[in-house]
Amino acid sequence: MLVLLAGIFVVHIATVIMLFVSTIANVWMVGTSSLGTVSAGLWLLCNNTCEQLPVSTSDEASLKAVQAFMILSIIFSVIALVMFIVQLFTLEKGKRFYMTGAIMLVCWLCILIGVSIYTARFTGKVPLSTNSHHGYCFILAWICFCFSFIISILYLVLRKK
């Protein structure tokens, strides 16, 4: 049981770290231009230097929504981690980690909404570039989506012994 709890804790911490990296780094889309590699994230457009991401007015609300949902996913993931630690020491024997699992499901939902909006609105759109593809931050976000779902189900099923 202790090994299972430690494993879930390690995967949860890895998920939080990957969420931070995928939200902060600017490599959601990568393309090539005459000046070299161009990468676009949720915040900046980077070539040799980074500048604010140019977004059309029709896509601005979508980008703000993606930014908000990714930040919310980080917040809920950290809250779930703290809640797990608190419940680990205060929960009675035989009880389940329902609160932690529910909060992690909300984190999962935020990741799903954020990455889905980004996929629908910004795939293939890197300003001033051609031959664009998804970067590692986009892939990390989908990995976090899978991990957060698995962790939330494990929390809901896990019983303190």
UniProtKB/TrEMBL annotation:
- Bilayer topology term: Multi-pass membrane protein
Q: Does the keyword Ligase apply?
A: no
**Chief location of this protein within or outside the cell:** membrane
Localization annotation: Membrane
Tree of life domain: Eukaryota
Q: Name one GO cellular component term.
A: plasma membrane
Where is the signal peptide, in residue numbers? none
Q: Which residue spans traverse the membrane?
A: 7-29, 68-90, 97-118, 138-158
Pfam families for the chain:
PMP22_Claudin (PF00822)
InterPro entries, A to Z:
PMP-22/EMP/MP20-like, PMP22/EMP/MP20/Claudin, PMP22_EMP_MP20
Keywords of the record, alphabetical order, are:
Glycoprotein, Membrane, Transmembrane, Transmembrane helix
Query: Hey, which family's this protein in?
Result: Belongs to the PMP-22/EMP/MP20 family.
Q: Which PANTHER family match?
A: EPITHELIAL MEMBRANE PROTEIN 1, EPITHELIAL MEMBRANE PROTEIN-RELATED
Q: What is this protein called?
A: Epithelial membrane protein 1
